[in-house]
Amino acid sequence: MRGAAEDRATERPACELGAGVIKRPTTLADGRELIYYDDPGTALGPDRSVDARTLDPRPGTATMRLDVLTGDWITVAEGRQNRVMMPGADADPLAPQTPTNPSEVPSLYDVAVFENRSPAFGPALTESHGAAPAAANPPRGLDDLAALGLGRSRTAVGRCEVVCFSPDHSGSFGTQSVTRARTVIEAWADRTAALSQLPGIEQIFPFENRGEAIGVTLPHPHGQIYAYPYITPRTTRLLESIDRTAPELFQHILDLEQGSERVLLRGEHWTAFVPFAARWPLEVHLMPHRHVPDFAETTAAERDELAPLYLKLLRGVDALYETPTPYIAAWHQAPVNVGRDSVRLHLQVTSPRRAADKLKFLAGSEAAMWAWTAEVAPEQSAERLRDAIARVGEVA
């Protein structure tokens, strides 16, 4: 007679994605989804260990409260207070499980994606594996979320996933091989497509936080994907700018930047540049040459070029100084249901590092009034980054 653990390990078949990446979905002991993405030509076999841990039930979905002064929804997720803080290699929750480390990933892996145990959003309204508690008082569409009023709250339906770039304890996206970077890109595209189909989801956001100065709590090389039940404030402002200018705003920006001295890298499908009005001491945008709303709609050729180009960019950022640079790598995608013909997928890498031993802190004007002052001219930043990227050489 088969047990529940054996059933979890084989409940859904593997399938091949682009670039020869193999997707192997399963679930963890508490019902959360876990997906292995195997590199093309991986040395790993097809079998994966089951998660035999005894885990507490999943927490109830967090609550969102409306800030009526700004129209922003603030998630109150008290369970996140208990997150692990900078563990050693022997207690790394993102490493493959061992007899002494009951981590989140049962087997050795190339790339692994799983639902966050301490999410800011989710579970979503319904889950395919049926292990999620029911969400009361969910959002009732974008019009409901846009309405202002005192004391308004909704359940923070959605999804938060962890994307492990490697089984190694330390590193970042930029330290991976081109093959591994391509596997992660394929995973981003696959998860963007899947999460966009969940009920109540309005926007998908893949990102990487790197460095303790950014607030990273795990040194393991990983990123995250947030599936929001609303359109984020940043994207809302972007949609307003498009309405006030032109539907082709992103193409106009790309044309401007490609003719400037702020270009860092340019390929057949992508261009990286320091933007004309950069806020941060280090800020780089990376944009595809054609309009594409999200990773799910990129072509194989675009993904193939992105892997080495993105690695070279991040390694150039690290070559600026003798120590690794903290950053946020934010992949902005079009919302799921609106703006898909005008909002273009693009990356924004930002860092508060303004010198080898100095960080930019957001003080009164910037933190309180959102009125920015840049201490480094974008053209100067671009020149330094180009020199650093040139020192990197070819990536492998």
Automatic annotation (TrEMBL):
Instruction: Cite a GO CC annotation.
Output: cytoplasm
Which cofactors are required for activity? Zn(2+)
A GO molecular function for this record?
Answer: zinc ion binding
Q: Which UniProt keywords apply?
A: Carbohydrate metabolism, Galactose metabolism, Metal-binding, Nucleotidyltransferase, Transferase, Zinc
NCBIfam families noted in UniProt: galT_1 (TIGR00209)
Membership in a protein family: Belongs to the galactose-1-phosphate uridylyltransferase type 1 family.
Q: What is this protein called?
A: Galactose-1-phosphate uridylyltransferase
Q: Which organism is it from?
A: Microbacterium aerolatum
Q: Which gene encodes it?
A: galT
